[in-house]
Amino acid sequence: MFLFAWQFAICLNLQFCQAKAQNPISMNGYIVGAIVPIVLVLLRNSRRVKKRGVLVDVGGEPGYAIRNIRFPFPLETAWEGVSTLAELFEQSCKQNSNKSLLGTRKLISSEVEVTEDGRSFEKLHYGEYVWLTYAETFAAVCYFASGLVQLGHKKGERVAIFADTREEWFIALQACFRRNVTVVTIYASLGEEALCHSLNETEVTTLICGAKELKKLVNISGQLDKIKHVICMDDEIPTAVSGRWAVTSFADVQRTGYENPVDADLPIAADVAVIMYTSGSTGLPKGVMLTHGNILATVAAVKTIIPGIGSKDVYLAYLPLAHILELAAEHLIVAVGGILGYGSPLTLTDTSSKIKPGTKGDASVLAPTLMAAVPAILDRVQDGVRKKVDAKGGLSKKLFDLAYSRRLSAINGSWFGAWGLEKYLWDLLVFKKVRAILGGRLRFLLSGGAPLSPDTQRFINICFGTPIGQGYGLTETCAGGTFSEVDDTSVGRVGAPLPCSFIKLVDWPEGGYLTSNSPMPCGEILVGGPNVTLGYFNNEEKTKESYRVDERGVRWFCTGDIGQFHSDGCLEIIDRKKDIVKLQHGEYVSLGKVETALSICPYVDNIMLHADPFHIFCVALVVASQQMVEDWASKQGITFTDFADLCEKEETIKEVHSSLAQTAKKSRLEKFEIPAKIKLISSPWTPESGLVTAALKIKREAIRRAFSEDLAKLYAS
């Protein structure tokens, strides 16, 4: 009916044009010209809001609970007879034996580039992908599993994987699952103290890592009590570790397993698959215990949400496999018979920092159809495209801005935006080149790990022509919680509950968030279902504080996030209990909300808002975008010795502060939410610096300590 009405409106427009051409003063033309807008408005207003979540009666403390509209009960598996990740992997390998599964690019050359200011950067030249089939991957997993036994790894002992995402990571994980070995996952960027804590707390006896990570262990080798075996994923083992441990290469373990095969010892759904250490945004990281059943529930649920996902899909794997988002995504791709091509954030595109100029990035070579991303990476993609467009200037920039404006109008519901043939022309003339950045075939993108700004979401929608499934979940819920569907074009929301989860809001009176609030119920978000994990390893007190089991046996996790439900059953994250600070005059400032709003300022690479209860205003530490700030300085004729010098100049601070104020105004922030003073930071915050997590979330307390003097000066000045 909708399609017919739209076609009818187009026909009316054509008749109007013909009538006007034949008789410029014909009343028919005027009548039709008047009818068309009316028809379009009626069409627009007649569209019904699609219901995506519905109220559900659940146990536990009183609240407002929603479930996925299509699933009355939480989903545990989508595959008959499959209850563990080991069974899921084996089944898919048998069904897709001759298909390609794991791909890694061959390194052709590596060279060091030295800049004018004396800094050196490694530049890499990679070739095409080299593939392992499902059958070959399964064989490699079985060999490695047998090799672990021959190496001396005993039943009940734990293995830790400490490495960047790569095919050996995935093979080692599946091998451990075949022997019912619990895997401790650790971010490759984790600091020495947190690394020591993770390995010792879980009493890891076998450590699997890359050569780069092995070098990091040298300084703390004397503090690692239980490690007996170290397996290096690279053939060249660093000489610095000789004598400290018996180090075996990954290939040697596989070779030993091939020569001495051992039968599988498969897990059950309730067995702990992974102890996943969080990135530790506050204090030491906590180890979350994830069972096979927990992870499988999330994988099964997401499978029902992504339309047409199957064996033709190609997934670019580059996020940390030590993060539940990536681990769940890769299992989903394997489950449907898809292809996994490995890359890294530093080699993702043709202009990535580690890619040799003139050579191809991972996305250009692989041409993925599916990707996962965290908001920080999508923000960088957006910044990169905008900078390139601004640098071209002239007609190219005007054409891009016009195309973007027309598509934005259409997506926002205007019938006078770019639809039909016009949309196709803009895609061909403008956006095709942008889409080539990520290979040109991307059809769906999953975003998680942190809030995605509406501006970035719209930019990706338009320029890359792909819907973004924005999800909400935590390590404690195996990334499962909510997920926005492909036909939901709204921004700022995180979708309806996944089929594996109930989402419940409970009152938080202190913050004024109540389920009785109008027009939308609000409260702290609780996630319940089979994807909710067992708790924190060796931390019963924290587990009791954050987890609940209701009288019906449903397990719940208290997230500490504040949300509100829209009428269609979709969730919006609006606050976080720990991020709310009360200023001296009684106003509440939500740090995370303000940071998300201000992060779209063109001069900002990263930002941390700081509010003090003893002051009436807030301040901000701003990691400045070097290219944008330097471009502005060049246009203003400002001279400077280096970027650090430029960030100290009063006129630079004034310009960035003014831009932040404009951004805040567009985002409708209150006056007390806008930072009254700012400090510009010239050096980026990286996981290696300890100021952001591996998922690129800011570590608020670490930043506060590192810049305590600067913060004190901002309040004192």
Automatic annotation (TrEMBL):
Keywords: ATP-binding, Ligase, Membrane, Nucleotide-binding, Signal, Transmembrane, Transmembrane helix. The keyword Ligase applies. Pathway: Lipid metabolism; fatty acid metabolism. The chain crosses the membrane at residues 27-43, 129-149. Pfam families: AMP-binding. It comes from the Eukaryota. It catalyses: a long-chain fatty acid + ATP + CoA = a long-chain fatty acyl-CoA + AMP + diphosphate. Residues 124-537 form the AMP-dependent synthetase/ligase domain. The keyword Transmembrane applies. Belongs to the ATP-dependent AMP-binding enzyme family. This is Long chain acyl-CoA synthetase 9, chloroplastic-like. It comes from Gossypium australe.
